[in-house]
């Protein structure tokens, strides 16, 4: 697969993941036409699917698809069981997806079966199980009927056209369910269809919604956060306002962001500073670290100068 295309597909699957909740391993419902095409173009089922979907896959075959595949198989005369067709991979590669559409669990039409799995609810079309559909146009019966006479060939073409029409209708019905990635085999290439316009609308809606919701969430969070902060930590965080909060705040201010403000403040109001010092001197219960530093300085100075505040120096020593 060319790099450009794989990048495109990866992007597309990423959109399905974001907007519709797809997750690896992707569950891929493969139909009988898809298996036939994969077989006739000699593609390996899982590697091709994984390259197309750019991720791990879990292919599934419904019981009704299996019934369709086995319907025209000749019986093995010895076992009296239908011969396993070459295009049907073993169950280890392609497990059965059990589906029950009626009480006696008789298989129903493959297309109806798959559509009912893609959108279980008739009211709201929604791909709840995050299935990916893998399908293909039916093999043209022309080639098979080539050797037959003209009449038969004509009938074959008609049948082929009916099958083709049905296959096209199937795909457009699948497109009408939002969020159904469609893989199909087109002229020996496995492709991933672009998102249907319906899916795109939903995706865009989701993205806008997310954007809006994101904004709202942020706004709410901000408000909530601020509210909480102001309630709890008015003293803590709002500290920068120097005048009103000074004393109770000191501890916080020391580690906090309010330093520049304080400097400015100190320049602006010396008197205030003086007060602060006085206050420091007054209260024994005032926060210690800062005072300690000051005392320390004084003490250092006094160490050199003389004895006068030596008492202070002593207390500092004791405090430390
Ligand atoms: Zn079924």
UniProtKB/TrEMBL annotation:
Residues 219-229, 263-280 have a biased composition (Basic and acidic residues). Residues 217-320 are annotated as: Disordered. The keyword RNA-binding does not apply. The lineage of its organism: Eukaryota, Fungi, Dikarya, Ascomycota, Pezizomycotina. InterPro entries: Fcf1/UTP23, UTP23_sensor. GO terms for cellular component: small-subunit processome. Residues 288-299 have a biased composition (Basic residues). The keyword Transferase does not apply. Residues 231-250 form the UTP23 sensor motif region domain. This is Small subunit processome component. Keywords: Nucleus. It comes from the Eukaryota.
């Amino acid at each position: 697969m060319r790099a450009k295309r794989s990048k495109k597909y990866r992007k597309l699957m990423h959109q399905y993941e974001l907007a519709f909740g797809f997750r690896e391993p992707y569950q891929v419902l493969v139909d009988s036409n898809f298996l036939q095409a994969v077989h006739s173009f000699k593609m390996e089922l899982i590697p091709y699917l994984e390259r197309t979907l750019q991720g791990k896959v879990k292919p599934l075959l419904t019981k009704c698809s299996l019934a369709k595949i086995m319907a025209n198989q000749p019986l093995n005369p010895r076992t009296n069981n239908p011969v396993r067709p070459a295009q049907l991979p073993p169950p280890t590669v392609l497990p059965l997806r059990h589906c029950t559409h009626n009480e006696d669990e008789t298989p129903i039409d493959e297309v109806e079966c798959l559509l009912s799995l893609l959108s279980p609810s008739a009211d709201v079309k929604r791909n709840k199980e995050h299935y990916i559909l893998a399908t293909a146009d039916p093999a043209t019966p022309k080639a098979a009927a080539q050797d037959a006479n003209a009449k038969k060939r004509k009938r074959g073409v008609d049948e082929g056209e009916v099958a083709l029409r049905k296959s096209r209708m199937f795909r457009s019905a699948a497109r009408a369910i939002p969020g159904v990635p469609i893989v199909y085999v087109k002229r020996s290439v496995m492709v991933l269809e672009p998102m249907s316009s319906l899916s795109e609308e939903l995706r865009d809606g989701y993205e806008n919604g997310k954007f809006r919701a994101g904004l709202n969430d942020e706004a709410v969070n901000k408000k909530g956060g601020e509210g909480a902060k102001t309630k709890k930590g008015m003293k803590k965080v709002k500290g920068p306002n120097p005048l009103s909060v000074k004393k109770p705040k000191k501890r916080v201010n020391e580690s906090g962001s309010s330093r520049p403000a304080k400097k400015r403040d100190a320049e602006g109001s010396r008197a205030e500073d003086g007060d602060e010092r006085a206050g420091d001197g007054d209260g024994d219960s005032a926060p210690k670290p800062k005072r300690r530093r000051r005392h320390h300085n004084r003490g250092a100075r006094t160490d050199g100068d003389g004895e006068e505040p030596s008492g202070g120096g002593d207390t500092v020593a004791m405090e430390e």
